[in-house]
Amino acid sequence: xxxxxxxxxxxxxxxxxxxxxxxxxxxxxxxxxxxxxxxxxxxxxxxxxxxxxxxxxxxxxxxxxxxxxxxxxxxxxxxxxxxxxxxxxxxxxxxxxxxxxxxxxxxxxxxxxxxxxxxxxxxxxxxxxxxxxxxxxxxxxxxxxxxxxxxxxxxxxxxxxxxxxxxxxxxxxxxxxxxxxxxxxxxxxxxxxxxxxxxxxxxxxxxxxxxxxxxxxxxxxxxxxxxxxxxxxxxxx
Amino acid sequence: xxxxxxxxxxxxxxxxxxxxxxxxxxxxxxxxxxxxxxxxxxxxxxxxxxxxxxxxxxxxxxxxxxxxxxxxxxxxxxxxxxxxxxxxxxxxxxxxxxxxxxxxxxxxxxxxxxxxxxxxxxxxxxxxxxxxxxxxxxxxxxxxxxxxxxxxxxxxxxxxxxxxxxxxxxxxxxxxxxxxxxxxxxxxxxxxxxxxxxxxxxxxxxxxxxxxxxxxxxxxxxxxxxxxxxxxxxxxxxxxxxxxxxxxxxxxxxxxxxxxxxxxxxxxxxxxxxxxxxxxxxxxxxxxxxxxxxxxxxxxxxxxxxxxxxxxxxxxxxxxxxxxxxxxxxxxxxxxxxxxxxxxxxxxxxxxxxxxxxxxxxxxxxxxxxxxxxxxxxxxxxxxxxxxxxxxxx
Lengths: 237, 394
Prior knowledge:
The complex is a heterodimer of chains A (about 240) and B (about 400). Chain A is of the alpha/beta class and about 240 residues long.
């Protein structure tokens, strides 16, 4: 019952990807060039609840989620993503996947995407390739993902995942102390991905990963830049 | 709160009048709650972040396949919580988790987990109330955020020591090691506090407080039967030893009942009726733990409680079959045969008897039981396999 993507897993990803200080880098995977719709209208897109957590990076390297920063960041990201997609002429709306009946299937695509998104992060765009995986194999949530299409009428679902941490005063002090005795101590890092799912097939048709050691999602302007990076290569209609 | 009057009879009279005034109020606890009803922390605080993570866990549990969702059972357990603490009852949400080990957990936002293994060991509602009361005690005293902060402070201090010592001597990790036992001691004090609050709550709600010590007696007996467990060092244990708890709870119970005299109940019937609903699921899961001494000790106790004797015999059959020690085949056959004399025995006992009689080279009985199995489950997934066995036996 732990959060599926824990801080220790994120650290593993980050350190295995050799971050260079001060820059934001993106890497993507896609299997389609353009979006299409099952009807003749513009393809419709729903923005799934954003999986964002902002943490304080404590002196010992333990992160604690900061609930107020997280709530603010969620608001900024929702707005900036909606604006960005609108500016690109996409028909996109926020979808609050509020499931009342706990036995219904509707909650499952979101839960499954946590696992699949993590797999793509580590095994497709990340360094740990799966040796027996076929070249150009599909990543998919399966056909049951169409339950979301039935619910909303949308053709695509956008999932966004962001984790960011900011050094506390204690951490900064620890960095100074560490420097005095010759031990390097890293600061906070931003890790995110955005993922586009075709709701007819459940396939993940586009995936973009962002890593940065700068950027502050507690500020709206910075959130706008982050979103621009996150969505920079998204296929258009 | 305690009145020292030397004349015995007058003391009892005064206490019982006071009792009716304070009966179900949290203010009659010797350790007062530190949070108000409907408490929520400031989202910008460390506690706010802690609650955020716990709320995420709660959403996962709500949708989890390991959650036992039987509505009546959930309502029953919630009703015991409300009897223990009418004021805080609306803030506490109990989730029953499908895990056959004995455990319960309290989270700072009012979410409580009770594992199905608890229901397999307890005998009555008073014992359930002692477990629930203990967890509620943790909640009312905000033990979790305190532990969280202790851990942070201790590990911060430990890390400074680690770095300093490490850079001077090359020995890494000393600080972290030393902090572990200090944390464990703090945890044990909290456990003792929760035991006291739990006992008082259950007593005020009319449950027999002697049942609280009984729970630990049951667990000690089970652990003693289990040959695989090693002695646990108190130094590292986060809970006081079961023996210490048993003795403390018995003492406190005696004192409590001397002070607050009234009719105390154990409430067996509704409890056992509710447990019977998850009995098959929970016992099957316990068998898959392969802790056969524990399973046996649990089933022994179930014989004295009026759970369905057919089910108990059936699970003895399963136990002996899976344990597979010399002589167990015969014991297993005998248990399944006894169980099948009653209508309520699960019919896959026939299949197991089929396999066991095959092993014993009793073709007639093996075929008979395989046949009965297929009669009861004509569309069984393994019917092809069973039919194949039946042909081999010809």
